[in-house]
Design a protein that fits this description.
- GO terms for molecular function: oxidoreductase activity, acting on the CH-OH group of donors, NAD or NADP as acceptor.
- By secondary structure, the chain is an alpha/beta fold.
- The chain has one domain (8-245): NAD(P)-binding Rossmann-like Domain (Rossmann fold, 3-Layer(aba) Sandwich).
- It is built from nine helices and seven strands, in the order βαβαβαβαβααβαααβ.
- α4 links the parallel β4 and β5.
- The protein is globular, with a radius of gyration of 18 Å.
Length: 266
């Protein structure tokens, strides 16, 4: 029996990067998968490829900044597969990398909408279906950027801090429904990584050298199994936890200060 046999999982932002890796690994572990993705071309391609390889998957066009759209994605999972057992809140819409004093209210609002509000809406939409199922698992995505106060990510760091509060609160309250809520802080070679590597010679090598394990993560092979573990019965006694899945990067951390920022500015 594979790890996620007879389970239904919904992964937001599953059209590429880490979300795609998680969706593909879920399918290999026999889960029925909802690829909840805004980009129709990418999302449908992932779902179609999973089906072509013998898995169960549907694509549902999902704008995570819309409460109605997220609720519809959850309902699509139930309509198509009869239940929802695992919710993975991965998607977010990035804003420009600028200093905190240059971040606009609109940038912060966009980040909050696609992280904190998105997870809040998805979790509340999933709750009645998981209760009916007798339990379930929610996996929220956190970030090491928050822990080091990553430069140029003030809005993102703020939102991801809130994700931990949401995760712990839901874990405390929803345990009575046998619903486990955990977070992971992953780093892997997703779309942003490949973009930076293409634009900055040596970036991939430097990134690997920062990690005690000496390599960068693969979305499917390195991140997918941890998310699947948290969604499976193997983690039935784990809730309210945050797991770093980053090759040990959180141990040394990293210096994110841009080289062109002066030490003192008056």
């Amino acid at each position: 029996m594979r790890l996620l046999e007879n389970k239904v999982g919904l992964i937001t932002g599953a059209g590429g990067g880490i979300g795609e890796g998680v969706a593909r690994y879920f399918a290999k572990q026999a889960a029925a998968v909802v690829v909840a993705e805004l980009n129709e071309t990418m999302g449908e391609a992932v779902a179609a490829d999973i089906r072509a390889q013998g898995g169960q998957a549907i694509f549902f066009k999902t704008d995570v900044s819309s409460k109605e759209n997220i609720s519809a994605a959850v309902q699509a999972a139930v309509d198509e597969f009869g239940a929802l057992d695992i919710l993975v809140n991965n998607a977010f819409a990035p804003t420009p990398n600028v200093l905190m004093e240059d971040k606009t209210d609109e940038m912060l609002q966009q980040t909050l909408d696609t992280t904190v509000w998105a997870a809040w809406w998805a979790m509340r939409a999933a709750l009645p279906h998981m209760r009916k199922r007798g339990g379930g698992s929610v996996i929220n995505f956190y970030s090491i950027d928050t822990e080091i106060g990553a430069w140029l990510h003030a809005d993102y760091n703020t939102a991801k801090s809130a994700i931990i509060g949401l995760t712990r609160s839901a874990a405390a309250e929803w345990g009575r429904f046998n619903i486990r809520v955990n977070a992971i802080a992953p780093t892997a070679m997703g779309a942003t990584f490949h973009k930076l590597a293409a634009e900055n010679p040596g970036f991939a090598e430097r990134s690997a050298s920062m990690r005690p394990l000496g390599r960068c993560g693969e979305p499917e092979a390195d991140i997918g199994p941890v998310v699947a573990f948290l969604g499976s019965e193997m983690s039935r006694f784990i809730t309210g936890e945050t797991i770093h899945v980053d090759g040990g990067l959180h141990l040394p951390g990293y210096n994110s200060r841009p080289a062109d920022i002066l030490v003192k500015e008056y």
